[in-house]
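quick q for whoever's on today - can somebody do inverse folding on this one?? i tried earlier but teh output was garbage lol. tokens:
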């Protein structure tokens, strides 16, 4: 038996979706109202009956929906978001289930071009301790160097054990300039003193997302530097916890998301949930511990393929930043 949930503005529209996808033989199991409209759950019996044979035109859509549903279930994507993605996928005009999946992701999530990072505005990396902010900062410096640009690394994390030495190692290897700054005033001064063609990347201390004082300190530093805040979030986390973290950082001004450790996790439902509830757009993703080539651009097609692999990401298939 195939189970599907459909959401529409009115009951009539929801019922039409049921008929279009499952056919006239579908059985309505439940209806309910929520913030998005009318939700209808329906089923189609496939075993040895006329029901499976009576709607052959729906077979490609049902197969696509089944495959996408299996992928989303593997990654533990929350049920409400799964329903939205499935509804978006079955309403696309393509017979290619992967392209339908990509279209659904594009409909529900945001994506930002990695090439938007430039010398005009600094980018400030924020996130919980151990998320990979310092390594991500170094990878962004590497991207700048590969593009024949210059970068300025402003670190607020130099006070931790080995923090300054690590930053010095990164900047020397990547021919970047390093400035250590302890507070918002120092960060702002360093950002304003950057050379015209330098891409300024600000590495921050680990922040407790549920500590308003710590988040306010980051917001003040970003405002002083005129920087855009990007949340660095490791893969593999619980979807509800990741969503709560993302919402907290979004409240402080973060508008983009950089997932890390995609090569060391098997389930990415936390990242999908975090991006959806916070409205943050995927800016890039960390797929390797290696600084050179360890950061890729993210778009709907690459994300659909990554999720569909249902296993550790293979960093050998890097995508060009666009």
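ok took a stab at it. sequence:
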């Amino acid at each position: 038996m195939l189970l599907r949930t459909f959401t529409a503005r009115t009951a009539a529209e929801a019922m039409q979706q049921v008929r279009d996808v499952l056919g006239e033989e579908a059985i309505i199991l439940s209806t309910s109202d929520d913030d998005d409209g009318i939700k209808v759950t329906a089923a189609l019996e496939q075993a040895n009956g006329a029901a499976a044979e009576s709607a052959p035109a729906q077979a490609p859509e049902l197969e696509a929906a089944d495959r996408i549903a299996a992928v989303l279930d593997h990654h533990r994507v929350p049920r409400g978001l799964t329903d939205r993605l499935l509804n978006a996928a079955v309403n696309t005009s393509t017979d290619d289930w992967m392209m339908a999946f990509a279209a659904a992701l594009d409909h529900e999530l945001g994506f930002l071009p990695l090439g938007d990072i430039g010398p005009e505005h600094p980018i400030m990396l924020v996130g919980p301790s151990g998320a990979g902010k310092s390594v991500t900062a170094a990878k962004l410096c590497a991207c700048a160097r590969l593009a024949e640009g210059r970068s300025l690394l402003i670190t607020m994390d130099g006070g931790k054990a080995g923090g300054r030495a690590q930053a010095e190692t990164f900047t020397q290897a990547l021919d970047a300039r390093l400035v250590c700054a302890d507070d918002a005033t120092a960060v702002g001064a360093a950002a304003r003193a950057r050379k015209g063609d330098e891409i300024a990347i600000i590495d921050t201390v680990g922040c407790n997302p549920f500590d308003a004082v710590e988040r306010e300190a980051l917001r003040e530093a970003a405002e002083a530097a005129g920087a855009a805040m990007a949340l660095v979030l490791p893969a593999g986390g619980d979807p509800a916890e990741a969503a709560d973290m993302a919402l907290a950082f979004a409240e402080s001004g973060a508008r983009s998301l950089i997932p890390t450790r995609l090569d060391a996790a098997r389930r990415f439902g936390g990242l999908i949930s975090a991006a959806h509830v916070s409205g943050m757009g995927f800016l890039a993703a960390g797929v390797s511990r290696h600084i050179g080539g360890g950061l890729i651009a993210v778009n709907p097609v690459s994300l659909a393929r990554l999720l569909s692999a249902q296993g550790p990401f293979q960093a050998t298939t890097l995508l060009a930043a666009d």
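fwiw The longest helix spans residues 59-74. also Residues 2-108 form one domain. so keep that in mind when u check it
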